[in-house]
């Protein structure tokens, strides 16, 4: 995650909280999803970064099928704007 040009890495608890917020929204809206745990797989992490187009991207990253939706910050911004459906490309 890059903020103001500086790299910031989330603590594990912060990462889990961010993932939880996204999954809670999907559950509340009854939207089907599959969550991938990339923590133990360098191959999955590299695939995620390649799809995102950022070699330093950190989870969670959200996709709707093959469409890249964004990271947690974009999800959070969409929630604040009252338009999360647009973020998920629904």
TrEMBL record:
Q: Which InterPro entries match?
A: Glut_rich_SH3-bd, SH3BGR, Thioredoxin-like_sf
Give the matching Pfam families. SH3BGR
Q: Taxonomically, which superkingdom?
A: Eukaryota
Specify the species.
Answer: Cyprinus carpio carpio
> What does UniProt give as the signal peptide span?
none
What are the transmembrane regions? none
The chain's coiled-coil residues are none
Gene Ontology CC annotation, any one: cytoplasm
Q: What is the lineage of its organism?
A: Eukaryota, Metazoa, Chordata, Craniata, Vertebrata
Q: Give the similarity note.
A: Belongs to the SH3BGR family.
What is the protein name given in its UniProt record? Answer: SH3 domain-binding glutamic acid-rich-like protein 3
